[in-house]
Design a protein that fits this description.
Keywords: Membrane, Transmembrane, Transmembrane helix. By secondary structure, this protein is an all-alpha fold. 86% of the residues lie in helices and 0% in strands.
Length: 122
Amino acid sequence: MNYNILSYLIYIPCTIALTVWVANTLFKSGRIFLVEIFHGDEALADSVNKLLVVGFYLINIGYAVYTLQIIGEIETAQVLIEKLSKKIGSIILILGGMHFFNLFVFFKLRNKAKQDLKLQVQ
């Protein structure tokens, strides 16, 4: 059995599934922040939210495909699992980093929107 090909057949679906799951979570949960940031303009918030998801897909799936190559011949199931764990683990770390970056940006924008609203009220 060619373990290199098997590793690709496992890696690609896992990476795409993880990316889709995180993107959907960000899309659903991030909407409320965007609506507040855009002062209740739901159409604009939804549009920006969709654009963010597309960018998220492009960056993460692009990186996963870019780093697809597994260096060296995989000769045993143990080596297959070890190499896949490193590759999928790196994707998970990147997804987590992007998730926290998105949260950071949302909170910063939300705080700015609240300050702008306070200034408008005064």
